[in-house]
Each structure stands twice: as structure tokens, then as C-alpha cells.
């Protein structure tokens, strides 16, 4: 598989512009910035899993994971996660949620690298995550 | 081509530090953060294409594209674009410009992934974009 | 070496969550966001090299470099560096430090690409840097 393919989980909301939720080419898989939107419902605008950091973080992980799996990858293939928070005070809680989530996932490979920075996001969003994966060659 | 090579379009302004506008090694091509600077003119400081989001976005696309082409790639090879805006209120307009631009480019491969976040940029700049491309092996 | 391996320099502080300071898979090496923390001392919390941009930047470079080397890479293999500053007014000084540092390193390959943006970071931190390297295949 060397051709570039779009990875578009059926349940994902339509991106707000002409970009793909994920793309894979050869053994490189890139996941676009995911947020805490629930699976799309026809005729309804994108809706977050809730106003809390926990709800949005867990939904964001689910959205990233769906793209990885649709592209033939798993969390174990992820090399880098970029975590964008809006509030420095959310760091400790995000790390707790992060650790518990990945504990549950039962990773076999070492944890990915990560960078976390604090930026602006569209109103109502507390977290955004993107990921770069390298699949077995 | 496995050696790391710098990609330096002749018309680009000199980077403000010792980094390359683009680098390629094997089939990986990385484009550094590009902004809306017009082609360099000798003896003149870097100048943006204009104060509007539209002018700067289109010039930024042109600058990214010049690096891709100089490195033997096209928009079709781009896996990820990172869009940095300074103002959440620019999101809708940027998406319009983005969609129209890529419509015009006549992509053959699926659209790249993308992450957009809101950060600070040097005075006068409204948008910055970098890109990761994977060429055909 | 196709297996994903964690790169954990012995002197690095423990990450604040379950992520790796660096990971390598095949010829791709990703360095997580590094900051200006001094080598870890048992029983002491992570401590920056100092309150100045210079001290933190040089320590951050040292921390990135340690990961590159532990993973079998050098600065010459770096394709992209992402520099996160908290203050636009630090740009000129960071560039000076950046240029002097890489001058001293005696790079043989072209300089990497770079993106610099201005974000929030945890209290006391002025700079964070992550890096993507591609090793010789």
C-alpha cells in the first residue's frame, strides 16, 4: 500500500473544510486534529461529548483510535501525539485521564512521544489531539 | 535520494535563523512554517502580501507549494498541514479560502489531514502553515 | 530495527504522564516536547536550568540532543524542530541562541526545517522544543 488513502470513519462528523480525518501512505499514517465530538447524527451539527475535560478527552481518544483502526493501525503504532489544551490548569487532570486510558488500552509497545501546549480552540472545545503513526513496514 | 537536502526556493525570503524552508530525506519532505511573505526583494525586509487573511493565506499557500515543487513533490503528497491562526474568528473565512484554493489545484489524491490551532504570531502575521509530505517511495 | 523502541536517557526527568521522551521505529525518530529541565536528581522535583531564555534554551537543546544520541541519531538527522515560545518578544534572542548553538555543533547536513509559534506553557517555562528525525535508511 503505497498510494495515499483517506481514512474516514463512517461515524465521524464531516470536517469543516476539505481535509481528511486521516491519511495513510505506505507505512505513515497521520491523524488530523480530533476533538470531543460525538459520532455524527444526520441533520445535527457536531456536538461534543460534554462540557468537561474528561468527557471531551475520552471522546477525542475514541475519535483518534477509530481513525487508527480504520487505517490498519493501533495505539502501539503511534509515535507522536500532540495535545492542545486551552488551560494550563487542565494539565494535571488531563494527565490522569491520559494515564488511566492508556493503562486500559493494554499497550504492548512503548508509549508514544507527546507534546502538550496551551492554545486557543473554537468555543466549547477544551482539548484537541492529533497523532502520527508509523506502521510495521 | 537518501541524503538530506535543503529546499530553498530562489524567491523565498531568507529565514530569520539557521533553518531551512524545506528539507527532504528519502521520501520524507518537511516544509517549515510559511507565512504570507511576498517573494524577496534585495535590500528590502520581508513584506506580507497584505494585511488581510485572504492575501496572507493565498501567499502562504504559494510559499508552501514552491517548496513542495522545488523538492519534487506536489500537494498530492502532503499528509499533514498545520494551520496556525491568531484569531478564532478567522476560522470560517480561512476554511472558505482553503476549500476554494484546493478546489482550483485539482488534487488527484485525497486531501491531507490538518490541525488548526490559535496561537500568537509575530506582529502583522495572521496565518502560518507548515506541511509534512511523503513522496512515492 | 523496525520495532518501536522508547528512548529514555538516564538523566532525564520522569515524564509527567505515560509518554516517552523519544521513540524510534525503523528510521523515524520522534522527540517529545523538551523543556529546560536539568538532569533529574532523586527526590527532587524537575528544576529548570534557570529563569532566563538563554539558560532554558540551551538546556532544552541538550535534552533534545541526548534523546537523539540515545536513539542513534544526531542533529544532522533532524528534519523538523517545533519551537514553542511564550512571548513574541523572545523571538530575536532565541534566534541568536539558536544560531550560535548550531554553529558550534558543526552540522554536516543542511539545517532542519522549523516552525516557531507562541503558546502558553506551564508556569516558569519559556520554551519547549520537539523534533522529528529521519535516520539513514
TrEMBL record, chains A, B, C:
Protein name: RidA family protein
Gene3D superfamilies for the chain: RutC-like
InterPro entries registered for this protein in UniProt: RutC-like_sf, YjgF/YER057c/UK114
Annotated TM spans: none
A Pfam family matched in the record: Ribonuc_L-PSP
Species of provenance: Streptomyces melanogenes
SUPFAM superfamilies: YjgF-like
Amino acid at each position: 500500500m503505497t498510494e495515499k488513502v483517506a481514512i474516514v470513519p463512517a461515524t465521524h462528523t464531516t470536517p469543516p473544510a476539505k481535509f481528511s480525518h486521516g491519511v495513510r501512505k505506505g507505512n505513515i499514517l497521520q491523524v488530523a486534529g480530533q476533538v470531543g465530538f460525538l459520532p455524527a447524527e444526520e441533520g445535527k451539527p457536531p456536538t461534543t461529548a460534554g462540557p468537561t475535560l474528561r468527557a471531551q478527552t475520552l471522546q477525542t481518544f475514541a475519535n483518534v483510535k477509530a481513525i487508527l483502526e480504520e487505517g490498519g493501525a493501533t495505539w502501539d503504532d503511534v509515535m507522536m501525539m500532540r495535545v492542545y489544551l486551552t488551560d494550563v490548569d487542565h494539565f494535571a487532570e488531563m494527565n490522569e485521564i491520559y494515564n488511566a486510558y492508556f493503562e486500559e488500552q493494554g499497550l504492548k509497545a512503548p508509549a508514544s512521544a507527546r507534546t502538550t501546549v496551551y492554545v486557543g480552540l473554537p468555543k466549547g472545545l477544551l482539548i484537541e489531539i492529533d497523532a502520527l503513526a508509523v506502521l510495521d513496514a
